[in-house]
Structure formats: C-alpha cells, structure tokens
Amino acid sequence: MIFSLSLKKEVIKQIACFLLALISVFTVHGQKAITLQERVNPTLSLSVSELPDRILFQDMRTKAIVNELLVPGRGVGGLLTFSPDGQFLVASGNDGQTTIYALSRDIIRQLARLPFKTKLAAFSPVKKECVFVHSVKTFNARMTKYDTNTWKAIATRNIASDINAVGISYDGKLIGFTNNRLIQLLDYESLTKVNVNWEKEKQRLLIFHPNKQEIASVTAENNIQIRDFQDTLIREIKTGSSKITWLGYDRVGENIVSVDVDGRLSIWNPVQKNKEQELSNIFTPPGFTKDNNILIKKEQGWTTVPIDIEASQEIHDRLSSSKNHEGKRLKFLPQPIIGFKREAGFIVGAGATMIWYPKTGHASRFSQPTIFAPIVSYGFNGKQLAVGAYMEAYYKEKWYFTNNFLFTNNAKNYFFGIGRESNDRHKTAYVSDNFVLEGSVSRILSDQFFVGINYKLRKDNELDFEEKPTSNFHGGQGGWLFGIGPTLRMDKRNDVLFPTKGSRLEINYYWFNQEIISDYQYQELKFDYRKFIPVDWLVQGDVLAFQGMFNATWGGEAPFYQLPYITADRAFRGVWRNLYIAEQVFSVQAEYRSYFSSADRRFGYAIFAGLGDGAKNFFKDYKASIKAFYGVGFRQQLIPRYRLYTRVDFGLTSKGDFGAFAGTGVAF
C-alpha cells in the first residue's frame, strides 16, 4: 500500500501525539516518575509541550499538532511560559538561548532570540514589558527588563543566584522575588530595592494577587502564607500537602490553586483558609478560561472544570504533622547559649544541634530524627566551665541509642538539708569537679515503644564546703557512681524539639553496687509521663502540656547530690537545685504555651503551675508537706523553622521561694 506524503505526515503527527500523551506523566506507586513540561494557552486554545529536541504546539481541544519547532540541544526541564494575554511564548533550555515566539491560531513565528539562558520570566500587567532572570552563576544572576515591542533591553541589575520565584504586582509598581528566607521587593522602574523582608522560613513560588497589595508564597512545610507589601502575615493556610510544585491565583483572586508532587490539585479559599476542591492525578500546571473556569490536563486531554462548584471526587484533608525533609537530610543549627541558674549565675556559651532526618521508606514508620549536640558554657558565679555533648540516634534495624556526657569544672552548688530538715536558712555553698556519662541502648519494638538497658557513670572530686553544714549528709567525699538497669519508653510526640501533640512515657531503673565500680550502693526508679494537647484557645498553635514525675531511691544510701529533686530544671524551675531533695519525690505540673500573635510566632509565652513533695518513704510513715509552684515564662525563637526557643521563666512556691531560669528548648 502506498501512502501520500501528506498522509504520512499526518500519521507521524498522530503517533508523536500519542507518544507524548503516553510519556508526559507516569506514576509508579503514587510517585511521579517522569514529567515532560506542558503549558496551556487558554486565550488561543493551544498547549505547548517539550521533547528533548523540539517544541510541539497542539490544539487544546482536538490534540492535533498545530506546529512543531526543532530546537537542537534544548533538552528538557527548561523554561516554557506564556504571556498572560497569550500572545507570546518564552522558551529557554540547555542551548543557552532564550527564544520569544509570537502566537496566533494560524501562525507561530520566532520574534527574537536572546543570548542567554533564562531561569524565570514575568510579564508586566500594565506595560508591554517582560522581566527576565537569566545568566545564573554561582553567586549571582542578572535581572533584565525588555520592551516586548522591540525585544530590546531597558534596564538590568545583578540579583541573587538562588532566586526561586519572581512576579510583578497588579499595578506594575513592584517586582517581587524570593530567595532563601528573603522576600525582596524592587521598584519596577529603577530596579532598586524597596523592601527586604526576612522570613522565618524559606519561601518559594511567590505570586502576586491580581488586584490587591498581597503576596502568596509557599514555606518549607508546604503551608501557603499570604502577606501584604509591608510584610505583615495576613493569613496562613496549613495545607498538609506533599511538596507543592505550582501555585497560582485564579483570574479574580478569590481562590488560590496549588499542585503538589503527588498529583493533587487543590483549590483553597484564602479567607476561610480551607480547601474547596481537590482533583487527583494532575501533574501539569492548570490554566484559567476567561470566565474563570479552571483548565486541567487529564489523560484524555485538557478539560474545563468550574471553579465555583465542588469537584466530583471526595475531598481528603491530609493534614500531616510530619515534615517533608527530603533532599538535604542533615541540618546544622548553631546555637548560642544564654542562660541563668541560681547556682551558676549568668551562663554564656555556644553549641550546635546537628539533625539527621531518616530516609523515606525507612524500615520503621518511626520518623524521629537523630540528634547530636555538643556544648561549651561558662557560669560567672564561681567560674564554672562545662563541656559536654548529647546524642540521640535511631537506626533502621530498630535500635535506639542515647548518650549524654558532661564535664564540669568548679561546679558550684548549695546544701540546704534533706527532706523536712531542708531550709534555705541552712544554705552552705560547696564546689567540686565532676563528669557524668549516662545513656541507654534500646530496642524499638514498635514505632513508639522502646525496651532496653540504661546506665549512669559519674565521678565527683571531694566536695569543698565553704563552712561545715549544720545538717547531716552522706557523700561529702565524692567518689564513683555506676548504675545499670532496664528502661522502658513510649514516645508518641509529633516533634522532639517542640512537641504540640502526643505523649511520652519513660521508666528507668538503676542498680548501684559497690562490687561494680561504684562507691555507693542503692537502687533508683524514675517515672516520667508527659502529655501534649493542641487547644487553639487564644491563637492557632497554642498547646497545653502536662507532666507527672516520680523519683525514688531505696535499699541503701545515695550521696546527697544524687538524691531525687523537684527544683532547678524540673517542676519548681529555677529554684535552688538542692532546696527540696529527699529519698523520694513526686511532682505534677501543667503549662499553657502560646504566642503573642499567631502572625508572628517568633515570640511567645508560657503560664505554668505545679505541686510536689518529698519524703524518706511515701509508703511508710509519710506526712504530707505538699508545696505548690506557679509562674510565667517568655519565649523567643532562635531558629524559627525548627521551633527551637530560648526561654526565661519566673516563678514562686507556696513557701515563698523565688525561681528564675533561662535556657533553650521547652521545659518538658
């Protein structure tokens, strides 16, 4: 059979169209495997698609190939963008060129070829001009304005090389772009800086509202933030989405549309901060018709969906507390240490928190990060120097390791007596050098349940008292301590640095025996339960936290500086460390954690209250002397993205004791 030349061309076009539709989007087990770019031009009912060496123009309705342009060396994954009026296409790829095409239903012609590779482009809504971000190098790139009548450069300037989005305000007065944690606004005419906004999180996918002075962008947690030109955060939509790859307003600015890597197209109401529609298997950026319907690409082609009615598919609220840490798994957080303790006075120092996030597809669903945190600090009251490190590690073989090492030189403390004999009028200062090494090795039996062995090794020099204490005590000679025993832990917290929901239970038993290193012989039990409840009472994100703690020693005599306590870093925070010590203690406390403004979470506060008591034996001849503690605290985020806080707490006990504590991290 003999085909005519025109028939052969038609067959080839149909085959190319079929292959393009077949390979444009592939999904494997819910993950996008291959995506070739395709963009839609609703004004002319055209779509443009890329292949490694050509660009294909198709009729949006019939899928017939309208034109095919050979672009040798272009590759895939470059820039393809239409002007808002549909009259121009900007294309740029690995050939190092930027080509502008004039478009109509009948003719597609090349207007200009610019000698650089373009990363981003934005058309002015009020002028016949286009802004290019191009010629990206290691440390900088170029931003250039072009006249779209002549395609000649008007103005240019250097710009950051890590820019990831650019846009132009609806009135054409400002250019906005994002890079790292910055949203920068430039004067459109002069390309000079108008405002530089430092953000709490990395921002990307910046878009301008079509008729308001507002900007929307996406954070690293895939939340959509909307702010005005003065950098006031107006609202935040917690999407619960996977990584959002595309963001846009509809034509009138009533809705925001997002597309994520899992192929979910979501339509959000910015005022109500809720999801109005959701469509699945949408990997191509949509378009909008003149009557504000949305154009989506399905397997059968481009389809119009009314934006003002619910989609036929069920809307799933996939809010997730876990964060998407794919990509860079190691996070390094430098951490200044500024604190206050009654014994050491003001403390300054430096540290770092290194966080390794688990790989996707981890053998266990348990997704807590591995943490290593070295520190060095200096306390001015007594010239106390402390050097240490903390490590918390998870392994895919379901093992959990934790170790804490601390060496303290000139560790200053006070002795007040033990149990009922304790009184701040008996305060006697003492100094010693010591080091502590404690940790555990646990087996992860489930995603949240751990069983293992814990240990504690401690060495104290002989204690140097300023004067002889008036109360009897045991342990003034210092010496070695070594204890070992079983540990049990259940951890259902949603975050190890700043938990907002879930719970944590830890039970530790230690056996100290003089036959094994230790100079002291006794047994110790620690019980610690914590519960975190999101309440959203005053602002979204506030939390109510509870803790119950029981700590007991028996079967021997522990050195007084290792007796259980309820002060210092525990429930009676900031009160003298040894003021309320006894063979056995318990405490319960509650804390309300909130922010002064939901729009700015760098600053917050806490209101807390608790009670506790100590005794030689709660189960024999116990006479209650319960003490209460209450106070307020202030919080400021050191590293907002990771919710690491500095805190200052002030409180009083029912006995009139005053407590002041400053440090980093949550109280419990």
TrEMBL record:
Residues 391-612 form the Bacterial surface antigen (D15) domain. Keywords: Membrane. The keyword Membrane applies. It comes from the Bacteria. InterPro entries: Bac_surfAg_D15 (IPR000184), WD40/YVTN_repeat-like_dom_sf (IPR015943). The keyword DNA-binding does not apply. It is found in: Membrane. This is BamA/TamA family outer membrane protein.
